[in-house]
Amino acid sequence: MEIYLLRHGMAEETMVSMRDPDRRLTEEGRRALREALERARPWLPAPSLAVSSPFVRAKQTAAIAAEALGYRGQILESAALVPRSSPERVWQEIRAHAAEERLLLVGHEPLWSATYTFLLQTPSLRLELRPGSLGRIDVSPGPRPFGVLRWLLAPP
């Protein structure tokens, strides 16, 4: 199973009057995300399923990715992909879609760095995932993950 982890694009700064889940992508964030997805296009076929965090910036990122990658299905939302979730919950979400060939997950930091280390079973691995970062990990959806990192791209 191919797992694609996409961190949302650059988002608005948090303001006193704004809830974190309501932050939207900036125009610069949209542009950089489209460029990053265009660069990844040769290595990234259309996902068989896309799942996003319910936060606005993640849903916007998922919609841009769906368009760029030719995904025509419904984008599902999962609370397992919010920033303060856990890699174990992400793994449960992955296993819930074990029949999918290519699963695109759109989420946040610090969850994605922790999820990479969890899926790869490398607790000492340290990553800095900038907005719009995209990586592929291949896994077998058994009771415990043992993934293989195929590639990881960061936007310029």
How are the strands ordered across the major sheet? 3-2-4-1-5-6
Number of DSSP E strands = 6
Count of DSSP H/I helices = 4
Mean pLDDT: 92
Largest sheet: 6 strands, mixed
Shape: globular
CATH level-1 class: Alpha Beta
The ordered string of helix (H) and strand (E) elements is EHEHEHEHEE
Q: Given the helix and strand composition, which structural class is it? A: alpha/beta
Helix content: 25-40%
Provide the gyration radius in Å: 14 Å
Number of domains: 1
**Under the CATH scheme, which architecture would be assigned?**
3-Layer(aba) Sandwich
Describe the protein's architecture and organization.
This protein has a 6-stranded mixed β-sheet, with helices on both faces. Helix 3 packs across helix 4. Helix content is 31%, strand content 19%. The protein has a single domain, classed as Rossmann fold. The chain is built from 4 helices and 6 strands; from the N terminus they run E-H-E-H-E-H-E-H-E-E. The two termini are 28 Å apart. The mean pLDDT is 92. It is an alpha/beta fold and 156 residues long.
Topology readout:
Elements lengths: L1 E6 L19 H14 L8 E4 L3 H14 L5 E3 L9 H10 L5 E6 L3 H10 L13 E5 L9 E6 L3
Parallel strand pairs: 1-4, 2-3, 2-4
Antiparallel strand pairs: 1-5, 5-6
Helix pairs in contact: 1-2, 3-4
Brief write-up:
With 156 residues, the protein is α/β, with parallel strands linked by helices. The protein has helices at 27-40, 56-69, 87-96, 111-120, and strands at 2-7, 49-52, 75-77, 102-107, 134-138, 148-153. The longest helix is centred in the N-terminal third of the chain and has 14 residues, at 27-40.
